[in-house]
Amino acid sequence: MPNKSETSTQPAKTKPVYTQLTLDFLEAVLGAQKGIQAEVLRICPDCNGRRIRPGVASSSCGFCRGTGQVLRSRAGAKAALRDCPGCGGRGLQAQQWCRRCGGVGLAKVPISMQIKVPAGVQDNTVLRIPSQGDLPEGRNKQGDIHVVVAVQELEGMSRRGADVYSIVSLAYPDAILGCSTEVGTVRGQRQLKIPAGTQHDARLTLPGEGVDYRGASGATHRGSHHVTVNVHLPRNVTPVEKAILLELFAMQIPESQQV
Ligand SMILES: [Zn+2]
Ligand SMILES: [Zn+2]
């Protein structure tokens, strides 16, 4: 069983450093190598972690004689060691503190690095980068960086989980007679077969053209691309078209009599 002093020397977990990363729609779907920036605590570059201003001779705090702690008692309580009010626990005279780090020896510095964004991340996903964050005051293990992902929209395509959605516009003869049309998916252009008699608002699916996701078993699956059909009806027709349409309607066999 650990004794009390061992438990108390256990360093507190360093808080993560947060940073933002914007991805376009396809980067989020397919994964990407991206650069991130963050501000993290490191050994102060001005004083090299020595806490005193460069070129200034170190002299100890007069209150605590450099220990950083003083014995103080409150009414009714036993005297205990507390951070020295003269130096805030630093042990150095305030005039000597490094200006950049305020005598702590650690300062925020900008860093940048490349990270691998996995395929299929969603808006507001938090990517955890271990041991690249703040260096704590004890100067032991660095904390983590948490990258909050923002995914940009893409005109004409939307996504829900692993499935992608888009709309295809068809001329009405193509919907009636059937055709093959090209559809833009996250994996490139694909041919979609429109069956004869496809109705307005019908949904057709290109299986396996969606977003990768990890199932409960750990295996990778892929969602689908769903296309909603928008049958385009012309607002105006030429006199010739009108004559043909009237002729067509005159000879149309009622649906009840169709075989
Ligand atoms: Zn410093
Ligand atoms: Zn002091």
TrEMBL record:
Start-end of CR-type zinc fingers: 31-110
Keywords: Metal-binding, Zinc, Zinc-finger
InterPro entries in the cross-refs: DnaJ_C, HSP40/DnaJ_pept-bd, HSP_DnaJ_Cys-rich_dom, HSP_DnaJ_Cys-rich_dom_sf
PROSITE patterns recorded: ZF_CR (PS51188)
Signal peptide annotation: none
Residues in CR-type domain copies: 31-110
Pfam family, one: DnaJ_C
GO biological processes: protein refolding
Any single Gene Ontology cellular-component annotation: chloroplast thylakoid membrane
One of the record's GO molecular function terms: unfolded protein binding
PANTHER family documented for this protein: CHAPERONE DNAJ C-TERMINAL DOMAIN-CONTAINING PROTEIN, DNAJ HOMOLOG 1, MITOCHONDRIAL-RELATED
Protein name: CR-type domain-containing protein
Organism in which the protein naturally occurs: Apatococcus lobatus
